[in-house]
């Protein structure tokens, strides 16, 4: 039924207009038939009543299934110097006041935390111009700027993008960020309540390091802290460091491996939960660890609590996307795509969610260019690239989908651009090797795979070199590269190592056949 509703309404305001036009056409047709004597007058009244009922039902269905109105997004940019460079050492003190109060925002608004933009920008996060450009592409309702003048005063501008209004103030002295935050909160009434934030500059500094994945320094600096907020921040650093460790899930099924960083984080968070002294994002962090440990029952409990703590955090929805659909029903979410769409609605620049949703769409399609799955995947990727057109991971996925759809020229154009931008990235050359292998341009493929190996000993390049030499009948080289890939086996669930083992068996079998018959198998 939901698919029929989606087909009729498109889940967008304005779908009802199509129904009105269709009903108008039907009624005009009936009117013509009555006037021409082809249909009786009394039947016309029944058709009019039928159309009215259909219109009312359609209006009801549209109202129930339409998308929620967009949230009024509030973006707070880092503080800049007179020359437009970022204020150092930490330009996020003012922005972090809003980020820490994101859970207190009133219905209809949302704070877009500065560290979300930091993650979207990746290597461009140290320049002021990309921040402004990306902020505007997010289509926010409000943008807050702050600039340090040569006099030492801080000049703040709030742009109301919907009404074209500007709010301007100047502050000086210590505590300027807190004063400005209070003034804006009173004047614009965005928050249910304002959470007092102590040591905001230090906390902004620590979150800056977290965003930069400098977990060791955060852990070292918070060793003696006892406040709830800093205990949770310390736990977040342990979780971040723990997530960097690879997990061999095949081995984990037989050997109970303990993630020491996760255990440290739990020792900080669980007592807070039990004493009901937890602050956001304690529940989210416990849920995120449970997802990594494949403890989905606890993940469900913690993540649902996290959602009540802060319903506007895209990261919670992304974590929820790893749960079975049956666990999501009470949240009004149908499936993984629905959850990922919700995450992207909150943060259109959320690279991980965009990547996963596009991949989900493509994998659920028929594998042809004009299928709904492929088109939906392209729509998701191109929408993101309007926000951040330089993202190498998303561009690589777009090229990968082009490659799978045999759009080889489009894929080659993207891969060549990535190789030019990131010449020291072995994956850029590896991807070109995959492309030329698909085009059966084996000399070019070999050249690019060898470059990937020289740069970073790319393990999967060995596998594909083995496949190429197997196809071209050079069994000695094929065996060498297959064996080199097996040597680089990464855990029991390394499927490329298993592919290399299969390649070895096939090459040895082909050798036996050729020695027995005296005929080398055709490549």
From TrEMBL:
- TPR repeat positions: 280-313, 426-459
TM region(s), chain numbering: 12-34, 46-64
Q: Which PROSITE patterns match?
A: TPR, TPR_REGION
Q: Which domain of life is it from?
A: Bacteria
The record's InterPro entries line, in alphabetical order, gives: Sel1-like, TPR-like_helical_dom_sf, TPR_rpt
Q: What keywords does the record list, in alphabetical order?
A: Membrane, TPR repeat, Transmembrane, Transmembrane helix
Task: Identify this protein by name.
Answer: Tetratricopeptide repeat protein
